[in-house]
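pinging the channel bc i need a second pair of eyes. not urgent but kinda urgent?? the chain im working w is below, pasted from the shared doc
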Amino acid sequence: MYNQMVEWMLSAAGAGLEVAAAHYDPATGRVDRVREGKRKIASLADYDRLRPWLRHENAHGSNIWIRPAAAEHPLVMLDDLPTATGAAVVRKYRALAVETSPGNAQVWIVCSRALTREERQDVARSLCRRVGSDPGAISEPRWGRLAGYRQRKPGKEGFMTTIIGAAALDRPLLDPAPHLETAPSSPPAGGRRGGGLPGRR
């Protein structure tokens, strides 16, 4: 369904989301402008209201991006993973994987507590070394591709981004403590946690 990713992220983030349209310059292949404004999503009704604008921007050369709106939240995103690795992460953890181009995926993983910007970068850097995701894609706050829209990056145009898998809420949470370079706070009680990810295949 068109709203599955938004519904999953609203539940996982515990707060609202924001979306943006990133337009690419055909000559350079780089993002030349990002239309962001006040594109906030607090409910599926908000997403329904924004969908005409998102479809218009996507049809006119923009990738559609999404991320949690809060400064602190429990979601960490890994970029440029093989789809098989993304599916393996979803089988093990509370996570969502999106195929963004043929054979490549982005994965959102839910940690056992909300993390600061710096902590999310620490976790992403550590996981990147373990699973082989893009080391240049750990800066925060991090945008990911919203499933259900066509890829507009030059050289990859036309591919429909799709959800590979979205783990149910009873899957284990990722314990961020082993991945933090900064001093971690005590995680809240409740919820199963795990500390390792499947290796890159």
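so Residues 4-180 form a domain with the Alpha-Beta Plaits fold (CATH 3.30.70.1790). and The chain has four helices and eleven strands. — does that match what u expected or am i reading it wrong
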